[in-house]
Amino acid sequence: MDSSTQLTGLFVITVVLGIGAQVAAQWLRLPSIVLLLLAGILCGPSGLGLVHPDILGDGLEVLVPLCVALILFEGGLSLDLSRADQDITGSLWKLVTVGGLITLVAGAMVAHWIGDFPWRIAFLYASLVVVTGPTVVGPLLRQVGVEHKLAVILEGEGVLIDPIGAILAVVVLNVVLEQDLGVAAIATGVAQRLATGAVIGGVGGWLLSRFLRWAWFLEDELRNLVVLAVLWGLVWLSQEMVSESGLMTAVVFGLMLRWCEVPGERLLRRFKGQLSTLSISVLFVLLAADLSIASLRELGGAGILTVLWLMLVIRPLVVAVCTWGSDLSWQQKAFLSWIAPRGIVAASVASLFAITLTNAGISGGDAIKAQVFLTILMTVFAQGLTARWVATKLNVRAQGASGVLIAGCTPLGRLLARLLRDRGEEVVMIDTDAEAVEIARKEHVPVYLSSALDLNILQEAGITQLGTYLAVTKNTEVNAVLAQRVLEEFHPPRVLAALSLEECPLGMSAAFTSQLSIKAWNQYIATEAVRIGELVIEEEQSHLQRDHLDALIRSGKVLPLLVERPEGLRIVRANEEWQPGDRLIYLLHNPKPHTLPQALISGWPVNTHVESVLVPSETPSPQGT
């Protein structure tokens, strides 16, 4: 069989195995890396012999950096720290810097004293496992559904520490090869590569964003390919200037394009996400297939114990130090301590290092590669398969997907935003009316101004992280169109629109009540002809209360807004079925606002209780109100 046929067969089999593993992982709700590693090991030379990475020769050393650069660029492009508070970002940067240093030193000590690695090889191993795996962490967190702040910290750590850890590992490798253990040499090498990558990635990203704004004639497909070409061009340029600075270039390039809000960013993110998934699938299968099962066996119990120390002692120590003084609870810190799976960067760099050490005549290349892959296998299996259970036990899972994005800074929308915010919910608003946006900003709620239904603005506003989308503009037809587009593009857990049941498309819910007259209620709120009340549905009177409440809703005197249940607070849907124990927050139309005390009609006091209005008499009648 000639070489071209072998190469074709290798790529076809690798892609089929990689994509098949991705499909199976989604079906089984497992981290994809688990099945990718198993597929590679089982089908490699040590298993069924279907995948032989050695056929690529030096091609593997070319393929790995380009694919890893693409993966890190996609991570930088997707990373959103704009909605993270200072306490979260502070802990994040400490994890990336101080945490990385602690992992390097403590990991080397454990690898030397327990794993019996020579000091230089021990430090090389520790530098490789400083990184976590954003390609593992992201899907894992989406499956588990953890609190927003934990997701921001873990995803941010994975994206930002990957280039830093990879550069640190390259510098340590150079030290090993040159037999120079000077701390100054390591610090200088890391700083030089980080600075070069940051400058080239930042300047290149800014210039490309200017070009894409000017190049209106480019179609979306060609625009995406231009970004890909520039990415690889900048990575190559960075590598030529300072070796191994390209990964930092890729991350900063992605961060800059996100910060500059390039046109078509949503489509670009989708395109790069698909390429990233393909790259991960191919790389993991190839790298795992190149792993010798015999080398894993040779590590024995010392190798397993080394990884356990890394997981159970060093990682909790890192989290404790880096989150000291933050407002994170002990449960949140415990979850951060448990979740630190290693991923594609550790695997790819370890594979390249094994080749480099072997070519340099230094023993230990295969052992260090096996130890890194053992770390990946143990962290991914142990943490990936138990993350949901641990998050549930620690009570750090989000109650569904929390937070609400409200489209429409109408009086009703602004009132809802305040009610939700005062009850601890994350709220973001969006509108096309600049004047309405300015009014909403006075409520201290994040507001975005959009000239139309801009899906990029919705992405920036956090639609992918928030649990509910509510369209509450003045026009019910617009509400239906907005909600339908969001449902098709982003698939949030709950999509609601202020319209009648007859106007409600399939797949979404009408909000509040089927008798809603949004124009009328906006007018009532604007003229302060409403009162805010709360009602608890009592077990003993639930039947009478529900009948009476439904009668008041049908009469147009009451508009139910929010219902609080043990599983959390949510916006009321049309034809909501009331349950005993429900705490209902509603608006009562009062046509004579001047007859009420001023304290009840100014400032929208959300703690005003007027349950007596909805307490039914023996013969429920809306006229009794």
UniProtKB/TrEMBL annotation:
Main location, first listed in the record: membrane
Q: Which residues form the Cation/H+ exchanger transmembrane domain?
A: 15-392
Cross-referenced SUPFAM superfamilies: NAD(P)-binding Rossmann-fold domains
Q: Which Gene3D superfamilies does this entry report, sorted A to Z?
A: 1.20.1530.20, NAD(P)-binding Rossmann-like Domain (3.40.50.720)
| One protein family per Pfam | TrkA_N
GO BP of this protein: potassium ion transport; proton transmembrane transport
Q: How does it sit in the membrane?
A: Multi-pass membrane protein
Q: Could you cite one Gene Ontology molecular function of this protein?
A: antiporter activity
Q: Does the keyword Repressor apply?
A: no
| Annotated transmembrane regions | 6-25, 32-50, 62-81, 93-115, 121-141, 153-177, 183-209, 275-296, 302-323, 335-358, 370-391
Please provide one cellular component term from the Gene Ontology annotations of this protein. plasma membrane
Q: What is this protein called?
A: Sodium:proton antiporter
Whose protein is this, by species? Parathermosynechococcus lividus PCC 6715
